[in-house]
Design brief:
With about 230 residues, the chain is an alpha+beta fold. It has one domain: 4-Layer Sandwich (Deoxyribonuclease I, Chain A). Helix content is about 15%, strand content about 30%. Strands 3-4-2-1-12-11 form a six-stranded mixed sheet, covered by helices on one side. A six-stranded mixed sheet has the order 5-6-7-8-10-9. Helix 3 links the parallel strand 7 and strand 8. The radius of gyration is 16 Å and the shape is globular. The termini are close together.
Length: about 230
């Protein structure tokens, strides 16, 4: 079974032209055409935490549905993190992943079923502080250990880690593979690999990359990253 995953910090749908344009973000998601998408900064930071991507637009213009984890009716995620899943993939469960943080940060987990195979995905946006990033990664891994039976898992998000291999990435021990799809920040002239995809050992990697279209270069200060993965038949 092959599946494609993508992570995208959409910067509250505000592009480099300072326009908030959710239709532009949805067009980029159609360009990427992934099966599971992790979004960061997907809602407004204050007040009702209103989603910058209206649910009705997601329903009408994309093949996705948002994974329900929020206690706020106007939000599609948690502290700006959201997961979009193709409608032919079953959502078996979802939860907020508590993260230690001084500023609003968060992570969410979803359990999926596709063609009889159980999968797990996590969307996260980590802290600017290296120490807190390490603590947050430990919290995510501890949460996964508490979920019961292990299954093929993909972690995605804006990790805010400038190091190529060290720093907080050292928290991913044996059994995890940190993919580096490429430079994704800032979108106009990317120099940093802040956006990462981390996979458990069950997956084979077919392709990774950064989606650098004309739209994506304008729509946010980050570019989307993606990975196509395969689960061997046991």
């Amino acid at each position: 079974m092959q599946l494609s995953f993508a992570s995208y910090n959409i910067h509250k749908a505000v592009g480099l032209d300072r326009r908030r344009d959710p239709e532009r973000i949805l067009a980029i998601l159609r360009e990427i055409d992934a099966d599971v998408v992790a979004l960061q900064e997907a809602d407004r930071r204050f007040g009702r935490r209103l989603s910058v991507l209206p649910r009705e637009m997601i329903d009408e213009y994309t093949p996705y549905r948002p994974v329900a984890v929020s206690h706020r009716p106007d939000s599609i995620g948690w502290h700006g993190n959201a997961l979009l899943v193709r409608r032919d993939i079953s959502v078996e469960g979802a939860a907020v992943v508590p993260l230690p943080a001084l500023e609003p940060r968060g992570a969410i987990r979803v359990d999926l079923l596709k063609d009889g195979r159980r999968l797990r995905a996590v969307a996260m946006h980590l802290d600017l502080s290296g120490l807190r990033r390490r603590h947050q990664i430990r919290s995510v891994l501890a949460h996964l250990e508490s979920c019961g039976e292990a299954c093929p898992t993909v972690l995605m998000g804006d990790l805010n880690e400038w190091a190529m291999h060290g720093g907080s990435l050292r928290e991913f021990g044996p059994g995890w593979h940190v993919l580096s799809p490429g430079r994704s920040f800032p979108s106009r002239r990317p120099i940093a690999q802040l956006d990462r995809i981390v996979i458990s050992s069950e997956w084979d990697v077919l392709h990774t990359g950064v989606h650098h279209s004309a739209l994506a270069a304008q729509a946010s200060d980050h570019l989307p990253v993606r990975a196509r993965l395969r689960l061997p038949i046991f």
